[in-house]
User: What shape does this take?
Amino acid sequence: MGKQSPARADRLEAGAAEAGAGGSWQWGSTPKTRRALLEAARQVFTEQGYAQTSIADVVERASSSVGSLYHHFGGKSELFLALWHEHQRTYEEAASKAVARLRKADETDTTELFCAGARAYLEGSWLRRDLTLLFSSGDGPPDFEVAKRRRGSEWVAQNDVLLGLADAPFDRLYATMLTSLIGEGARQVASAPNRRQANQVIEAILDYARRLLAAGPWRPEGLTT
Assistant: This one.
């Protein structure tokens, strides 16, 4: 076997410290340990930022170990991305449920459906404002911006479908503008100094969205499709 890297050796040493008396891995309650690490990561990343946070900071806050963190996430970068993915899933679930409730009430107006999903998204930005500001700060692992751009493209495509837009450049631009309005608006909501102002920002964003939705996609003169 080749010589182990120092990082690999540290991981094995940390893991060995958690081995049970019989030599098998003893990770305890895996979901509970994973949850504790995510909660600790949320606290430490939002307090110190990604770059200034060490794995030791997270495991100390979680009352866990380096071996557990590597076992569940693979490293600091992966932990940060796992926290972001969970944040995104919470956004998506809230928006989807809001749209589904309106559809169940026989609402078919795409403006109302879009604004219901957008409101749920923006409300979540205030409720989880620590994470919203963290993930919009520009402080993250190298591959984080790529992941955000990919998710942004998926979000635009979902809004294309929701609004019943055509597969055409100007429609795509229109969906991108609406999506960007909500995405940037989320940061403004999270930055509000109190709930009252956050509510005012949410209403302003939705008003801008309604104006764009009423106008529809721009079309060059003479273009009908």
DSSP finds ten helices and no strands in the chain. The chain has two domains: 27-74, 80-215. Confidence is low (pLDDT under 50) at residues 1-28.
